[in-house]
Amino acid sequence: MRSAAPRRPIPVWDVAVRLLHWTLACAVAVAWTSALEIGVPGPWHEAAGYTAAACVTLRLLWGLVGSRHARFTDFLRSPAVTWRYTQQVWQGRAPRHIGHNPLGGWMALTLWLTTGGIAFTGWLQTTDRFWGSEALEQVHTTLAWGLPGLVAFHLVGVWLTSRHQRENLVKAMLDGRKMPPSGDDVA
Ligand code: HEM
Ligand code: HEM
Q1: pTM score above 0.90
Q2: pLDDT value for 153
Q3: Which protein residue's CA is at the shortest distance from atom 20 of ligand 2?
Q4: What is the 3-state secondary structure (H, E, C) of the chain?
């Protein structure tokens, strides 16, 4: 009798996705802590903020032309599909997704747009036109204080999905590999 071929991990997250993810996470952490430590944001804050902005810009472009699971078409699902998936999560029978699941996909977009908005309003405050604008300062601060909340949701989502799927998603974001799809998994 022939035995089934052993299942080996397959590549899912390309190098650009992983590099941009961890650089973005570090840049956000530095932008945040440098803003609080110094009081008045200095060169570290600006450098980290622009690094975060560069990561977001490159990742949004990569979402158009990158590898299969990096593309928006792979993970941005319609509201109806996302709602159905949310119900399945609630009932504890959500299928495994090889790329981002529908909730994770929308969370990723929210994180990119929020970070991009923070960096943009930060930069605007350095221009002649908006120098000293209290309204912009307010927007920058509000979005900046909202970001840790979103990151907390993101981490809870990663933890719960890892537990439900019995799969280390953090390791997959480091080495780029996951077990191949089987059964009802969404490839
Ligand atoms: C400021 C901090 C962070 C931000 C802004 C952030 C943002 C993001 C974004 C935008 C994605 C989508 C990635 C892509 O498609 O390119 C993502 C995915 C992911 N992040 Fe983070 N992240 C942060 C911190 C972390 C940390 C600390 C961890 C682990 C402990 C982590 C684990 C993951 C994992 C595992 C995924 C893939 C989720 C999946 O399998 O669908 N992230 N993150
Ligand atoms: C991911 C990017 C960024 C994050 C997470 C971030 C976060 C923050 C935080 C937490 C504060 C302190 C708010 C408070 O007083 O409670 C702040 C202030 C400030 N940031 Fe940023 N920032 C980012 C990017 C930038 C960039 C790119 C610039 C400009 C080049 C900038 C310029 C400023 C300025 C001028 C302030 C002081 C005025 C204000 O509160 O708006 N930031 N930022």
Answers
A1: yes
A2: 98
A3: 122
A4: CCCCCCCCCEECCCHHHHHHHHHHHHHHHHHHHHHHHHCCCCHHHHHHHHHHHHHHHHHHHHHHHCCHHHCHHHHCCCHHHHHHHHHHHHCCCCCCECCCCHHHHHHHHHHHHHHHHHHHHHHHCCCCCCCCCHHHHHHHHHHHHHHHHHHHHHHHHHHHHHHHHCCCHHHHHHHCEECCCCCCCEC
